[in-house]
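=== RUN LOG ===
request id: a7f3
mode: sequence -> structure
chains: 1
length: 351
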Amino acid sequence: AQAVAAPAPKADKAAPPPMSPPLEPRDGFRRRPPPNVPPRRMVPMKKVWDRKGQISLDASAARDREASKLVAAEGALSARPDSKTVTRDLFGLYAQHGRLDRAAEVAERWASRDALDPEALIARADVALRRGDRDVGLRILGGVVDVRPDDAAAQGRLAKLYEDSGQRAKGCAHRVALAEQLPSDLNAQAAAIRCARVEGMSELAARLQADVAADKRAALDAALTKAPPSQDALLGDVRLEATWDADVDLDVGLVDKLGQRLSWLGGGKARVTAQGPTRARSESIAFANLGSGSYVIEVVRATPGSEPVRGQLTVRAVGETRVIPFTLTEGRVELGRVQVFYTSRLVPVDR
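=== RESULT ===
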């Protein structure tokens, strides 16, 4: 018989390669640190805003940038002569650019269309004050409370400007009106009672005190025992301090983007304090809570005259200080701009 060869034995399968060591656990894209190294901690951060100021002696640069806005606003008023918004915008641009004649025309047209608009009256008053017609400006401002007697801001502004100018009886009349409008405002009540006593109107002071609600009498008495705020204290981080060489009355101030004049006579929302606003040879004013923006710096002759006046203005704006010499030969002179702005930075969160 033919022999049959036995089948060759099957070759053993290749042994699998040794397994790789297990990967170390990962935390995100980073390997975990060895056990003896403490893990990194995330530091929580928050954004804070720093208030800053910048003083420029050149007011023309900003005007050059806004030239196209002025042309556009003039065209808009021609197309929509009855628009209050367009009128207000054009007035503000003219006022910022120092074009008082055109600003006066716009303000007059504005007031002629709505004689009871307090903003139009304030615009006319600001133009008069910048031209040195203080008496005219004060009469126009007085008209604001005539057309809107319940305007607490206007009453407070007139009270302060009369007090600062030494006309305390007129100022007290506005303090009393303000107290009657704001019966729950204890500061307004205390100011009215205090000035009524000083002016010899004891019966009025007693009536105002009696009209306060019984549950607020103790708080009112405490407010009355406090010393009244000093009229000469300057408060705020933006200040203008001027001295000059002649016995004339000058006013220093700022003009905002809406064309409002900010001076010891008030204006805007910032709180204004002043020293010697009606005396000759010096004046200082300060602004508390002045909003961010660009403001024109100007010096105005408060009463008619043509005598040349030489002096210097120290401008302080949120830590920055500049001393600016000036010569006033006409009614007013612009000395530059103040820019108030905010910058942000990150700081650790306090735990």
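=== NOTES ===
The longest strand covers residues 332-348.
DSSP finds eleven helices and twelve strands in the chain.
=== END ===
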